[in-house]
Amino acid sequence: GEDVEQSLFLSVREGDSSVINCTYTDSSSTYLYWYKQEPGAGLQLLTYIFSNMDMKQDQRLTVLLNKKDKHLSLRIADTQTGDSAIYFCAVKRYSSASKIIFGSGTRLSIRP
Amino acid sequence: EPEVTQTPSHQVTQMGQEVILRCVPISNHLYFYWYRQILGQKVEFLVSFYNNEISEKSEIFDDQFSVERPDGSNFTLKIRSTKLEDSAMYFCASSDVGGEGYEQYFGPGTRLTVT
C-alpha cells in the first residue's frame, strides 16, 4: 500500500543547513509536500513540488525529488531557532481528489 | 490571511459518549477533510466531503463516524459512541480545488481525550 517514511529526529547547529529526507512507495504520487508543525499549532504547508520537477527553491528552502528512487528531501539553509518544529513529508495522487498520505514527521532541533 | 478554525481545542469525554468536533473552513473553499493523529503516530486521512456528500473515506471512518455541513460555514465530525482508541488530535482541512489542487489548509486541531 501507500507509505511514506522519514527519520524521526534531526539535530543541527544554528546556522548550518538541515536536510530532512523522505521516501515514498506510491509511484503515482503527483504532488509532494512538506508541512511544518510547531507546538500546539496546525499543519502549515511549507512548500510542494510536482512530480515532473526535480528541484524547487523557495528562499531558504530547497526541495529535491528523485523519482527513480522515490526520494524527497527538504534542505533548510542557515537553520534558525525558529525552524524548530516537526516536518512532515506528504504525498498525493493525481487521481485522488482528496487523500494526502503523511509520513511520521521529523523533529528538527537546533543546537546553539 | 484566511484560516481554518476548529473548536474546541481540547475535548474530554467518557467512553460511549457522542462528540461533535467543529470546523469552520476557509469561506470560498469547496472541499473539506478530516484527518487524525494518534499520539506518536502518523497523520491519517479520515474523510473528504464535497457538494454535500462524502467523496472519499478511509477504512478508519466506520459507521461510528459521520460528517455534516449543517450550514454555509461549519463542517462537523461526529463520533457516535467514543472508544478509548478514538483519543487523538483531529485536524480539519479545506481546499478550493479537489483533484487538481495542491494545497489543503489545515486547522490547529482538536485534541480529543476519551476516558
Your description of this structure?
The complex is a heterodimer of chains A (112) and B (115). Chain A has strands at 4-6, 9-13, 18-24, 29-37, 43-50, 55-58, 61-66, 71-76, 85-93, 101-102, 106-111. In chain A, strands 2, 4, 5, 9, 10 and 11 form a six-stranded mixed β-sheet that branches. Chain A has a five-stranded antiparallel β-sheet with strand order 1-3-8-7-6, with no helix packed on it. Chain A is mostly beta strands and 112 residues long. In chain B, 0% of the residues lie in helices and 50% in strands. Chain B has strands at 5-7, 10-13, 19-24, 31-37, 43-50, 53-57, 65-68, 75-79, 88-95, 105-106, 110-114. In chain B, strands 2, 4, 5, 6, 9, 10 and 11 form a seven-stranded mixed β-sheet that branches. In chain B, strands 1-3-8-7 form a four-stranded antiparallel β-sheet, with no helix packed on it. The interface between A and B is medium-sized, with 27 and 27 residues.
